[in-house]
Amino acid sequence: MKVLVAGGTGFIGSYLCRALADDGHAVTALSRSPEEAPEGVTGVSGDVTDYDSIASAVDGHDAVVNLVALSPLFEPDGGNRMHDRIHRGGTENLVRAAEDGGVDGFVQLSALGADPNGDTAYIRSKGEAEGIVRESELDWTIFRPSVVFGDGGEFVSFTKRLKGMFAPGVPLYPLPGGGKTRFQPIHVEDLVPMIAAAVTDDEHAGETYEVGGPEVLTLRQVTDLVYEAEKKGVTIVPLPMPLAKIGLSVLGAVPGFPMGADQYRSLKFDNTTADNDVGAFGADPAELTTLGEHLGIR
Fold this sequence. Notes:
CATH architecture of the domain at 2-148 and 186-212 and 272-284: 3-Layer(aba) Sandwich
Domain NAD(P)-binding: 7-148
Shape: globular
GO molecular function: protein-containing complex binding
Pfam families: NAD_binding_10
Number of helices: 10
Number of strands: 13
Protein name: NAD-dependent epimerase/dehydratase
Structural class: alpha/beta
Strand order of the largest sheet: 3-2-1-4-5-6-11
């Protein structure tokens, strides 16, 4: 197959491009940094917010995978309006280019909790993007993963960066709400084969899959694992959510500070699946990679 991966030089995209190329497919990585495309993958320049820059690259492919996304963990450069521009607007352009270019299959990487009426700009834009995909003429598949971890990912480093914001240079870690927010982290090398299967197997068309890893962890448990792996001691103390709200709302107005009120709101709801759909791809949740295994902790 001829497959175009939008965001093909990013964290998940690099893994997916390599996997598809290793399976014998002709893979094109659409990116603003095409020179970073993995070996054996064709890199092309394009910006999903500019239809004219992507239309010719999309034309003639059998399938398109949309992995272009901003992080929900940090406030993007340009503010929260960028979520709408990238997620909704970018998806709209990719879907239009795919329809105009004779593409059949379209795989959309969304997020758990995606909802046009959600509490954060990230969740709202992801929900609106899903609506665009579902209303298209394409054979679409939507994935809603929990946080994805692995070499090159940002989830592990996020916990350390969070401490640097709230308590730099001291062994205390004031974690918002005591770190009760729950996640279901999935390893990138467990997720990628599922996305690849959706690209190549028609039985997944028209389906939305919520996928997560083998265990549910609170942010506090994740933080403990990260510091244990580095053999560093840290004392976690609860930071009341009202104080976290005030702190992030005030600091979010400071130029260059990477978090804001939306990040506070995102810590108020869990990031876990209702029913883990990895079984649709022949995977046993119990056999997936745990965060501890990735960090070298048995």
